[in-house]
Amino acid sequence: MGAVMGTFSSLQTKQRRPSKDIAWWYYQYQRDKIEDELEMTIVCHRPEGLEQLEAQTNFTKRELQVLYRGFKNECPSGVVNEETFKQIYAQFFPHGDASTYAHYLFNAFDTTQTGSVKFEDFVTALSILLRGTVHEKLRWTFNLYDINKDGYINKEEMIDIVKAIYDMMGKYTYPVLKEDTPRQHVDVFFQKMDKNKDGIVTLDEFLESCQEDDNIMRSLQLFQNVM
Amino acid sequence: MAAGVAAWLPFARAAAIGWMPVANCPMPLAPADKNKRQDELIILNVSGRRFQTWRTTLERYPDTLLGSTEKEFFFNEDTKEYFFDRDPEVFRCVLNFYRTGKLHYPRYECISAYDDELAFYGILPEIIGDCCYEEYKDRKRENAERLMDDNDSENNQESMPSLSFRQTMWRAFENPHTSTLALVFYYVTGFFIAVSVITNVVETVPCGTVPGSKELPCGERYSVAFFCLDTACVMIFTVEYLLRLFAPPSRYRFIRSVMSIIDVVAIMPYYIGLVMTDNEDVSGAFVTLRVFRVFRIFKFSRHSQGLRILGYTLKSCASELGFLLFSLTMAIIIFATVMFYAEKGSSASKFTSIPASFWYTIVTMTTLGYGDMVPKTIAGKIFGSICSLSGVLVIALPVPVIVSNFSRIYHQNQRADKRRAQKKARLARIRVAKTGSSNAYLHSKRNGLLNEALELTGTPEDEHMGKTTSLIESQHHHLLHCLEKTTNHEFIDEQMFEQNCMESSMQNYPSTRSPSLSSHPGLTTTCCSRRSKKTTHLPNSNLPATRLRSMQELSTIHIQGSEQPSLTTSRSSLNLKADDGLRPNCKTSQITTAIISIPTPPALTPEGESRPPPASPGPNTNIPSIASNVVKVSAL
């Protein structure tokens, strides 16, 4: 069962044209123009079969069912675009601004860089995050931090990420957030991660440093039983 | 957090892995999911219609009935489903709320039914979605108005005995139908307002010539008469105003209200005229003041609801009226300017200035067209026609808005009046139903003992009568019966009670003999109050059937008593009487206990008095004579 690309075409609206009033015509014309533009973007997507997904991911059928129900409820069209993604994520962090971090997350989920996350992508990423090996998780996290996807994390990328995380905290924190807190945080991070002190962190450096740190190892197992 | 988004919490938690490497300190422990059971389907059976949903769907809102453990009260063990004896249509909306997080209000549903259902399921109406919220609020407001109307008219009908004089006066002013005095006052003031207005009008009519001078208006010819009329009206208005000033609960608010201002303006000119002398200088101003006398006509608005509605409409359409005025002004200025410049060239043109052209523009735009100013140039005529065309448009646009507002308010008022009128009929129906049920009880009481008696006697043909009453009815009647026994009083119908009262007062017995009987006789009397409702007509009287029968029965029994002192053996004789068509109205066992001579004629008099005195005095006089040695049968 392949993915079916259905389009919400404007054919329906073209059939509903009872009268030829000038004003009405003009209005319809404008609307059709807009709808033609939207035609390409509104897609209705159906995911691959349950068995296939079960084989590809580490979830059981039941878990996939629950996941899909929640997914479909929020996104009836079958795909998440970045706006919806940001809105959903923002609901969990009402204090601050989660949009930047959601943006980076979205890019991490959207492996094919199409601008929309399908259910398969969603479930694949979740499978890694919740049921994957430590290696896989760390690799996913590295991918998240690597904003421009060039295989290396430099300081600016890291500062952006950390700033985004701090943004989610909002204004009212204790102790009060200062301007250079993210930068200081990144400095500490780089000290730990950057083995050869060349200003960038490669995947191997990242993996090695994280596996040395007990805290990180422990916290990676934290969300084991989320599903 | 929206319900649907709660399903995304696992994702948000998983995404938190992105923070882990950056964090410097250890993370807190995750909460354990103790009862991690597989999501299961719940069956909700609402009046036979089965809805199914996931348990987690319902648990999204734990502070509602379905989301909390409260629903366990409705769990049916046999069928393993939750059964609710409620409306399935509204339940559809409720369940959709759990599914989608949005509560919708169906338009066809009655607002109070919907509110009841929401209250049952523990859902606050405030979370109704935006799409349906306005409709819901509108309906709710209408309903509240209706309830308020009902309450108001109820309050008006109640007699509030503890009203002060001032409060009664205020009520009388506000609603002239509360008492005849208020109605009289209402009509008198109305009459005087009319007289005053007509006087003002007639004053200026030329009234025929006095020989030797020019034609005079009536006001000057009969000045004394008109002055007296005016004085009288103003006196009445002043008195009325002072009374109104005295009555209201909040004088300050009253003084600021429109009606009070109109009242003041209506009577002021007279007093000012009295104060000022007939000086030539101020007479001009005096004449101006007289114009204000026409405001008296506005006093009619207290008397006419339509006027009030009109005023209210104009007030509520203030913005539309303002727009009308503004657009008219704009158009007038534009066209006046154009016409002025167009007609500037023509000689002897009446359009001497732009303000002078205003008059032309107004007259043309409102399609009056007096013709005192007409354009003469071609350009002027062209622009003049454009002016008249646009005038029609500009005026026609805001008018329908005002009209629709007026119609809406007017119909609201009509509905309120109709509801009030229907309310009387409704209350009458309720009263009839109530008396019907109480009569049913009395009826069944009579039949009840009758049936018990018949059971003892074994007459088959009347046993079926008892079975016609349902189980619920019989239980209800049993309950009322127990109440009677408890209080040693009985239920009787209204007419008989009134009769009893009348007759007890007529007989002038000592006050200790109350119609409701002292305890000892009461005991005996209450048990034997059954009366059969068979419509047998007795030959010697034309009384109403029930009382007649009661009289007859009593007289019969008394006669029986006189023949047979002991009625304990009268069972057979009662049966004989039954053959006669009269049913015994007491259980025999009760009759035995009732053999007590009671020298209480008043107890009997309800019987004897249950008919107009002149009708048949015979049995009445009989009874007291044999009262002493005859069982007193009934108090009714």
TrEMBL record, chain A:
EF-hand domain: residues covered: 97-132, 133-168, 181-216
SMART domains hit by this protein: EFh
Superkingdom classification of source: Eukaryota
Calcium in keyword set: yes
Keywords for the protein's UniProt record, in alphabetical order: Calcium, Metal-binding, Repeat
Metal-binding listed as a keyword: yes
SUPFAM superfamilies linked: EF-hand
Family matches, as PROSITE patterns: EF_HAND_1, EF_HAND_2
Gene3D superfamilies documented for this protein: EF-hand
Name of protein: Kv channel-interacting protein 1 isoform X1
Source organism per UniProt: Galeopterus variegatus (Malayan flying lemur)
Gene: KCNIP1
Automatic annotation (TrEMBL), chain B:
Gene from which this protein is expressed: KCND3
Record SUPFAM superfamilies: POZ domain, Voltage-gated potassium channels
Record-annotated BTB domain positions: 40-139
UniProt biased composition (Polar residues): 506-529, 618-627
Matches recorded under InterPro entries: BTB/POZ_dom (IPR000210), Ion_trans_dom (IPR005821), K_chnl_volt-dep_Kv (IPR003968), K_chnl_volt-dep_Kv4 (IPR003975), K_chnl_volt-dep_Kv4.3 (IPR004056), K_chnl_volt-dep_Kv4_C (IPR024587), Shal-type_N (IPR021645), SKP1/BTB/POZ_sf (IPR011333)
Region (Disordered): 506-546, 597-627
Location(s), subcellular: Membrane
Membrane topology reported for the UniProt record: Multi-pass membrane protein
Gene3D superfamilies named among the record's database cross-references: 1.10.287.70, Potassium Channel Kv1.1, Chain A, Voltage-gated potassium channels. Chain C
Signal peptide location: 1-16
Keywords: Ion channel, Ion transport, Membrane, Potassium, Potassium channel, Potassium transport, Signal, Transmembrane, Transmembrane helix, Transport, Voltage-gated channel
Species this chain originates from: Galeopterus variegatus
Stated name of the protein: Potassium voltage-gated channel subfamily D member 3 isoform X2
TM spans (from-to): 181-202, 222-243, 255-276, 321-342, 354-370, 382-403
Pfam families: BTB_2 (PF02214), DUF3399 (PF11879), Ion_trans (PF00520), Shal-type (PF11601)
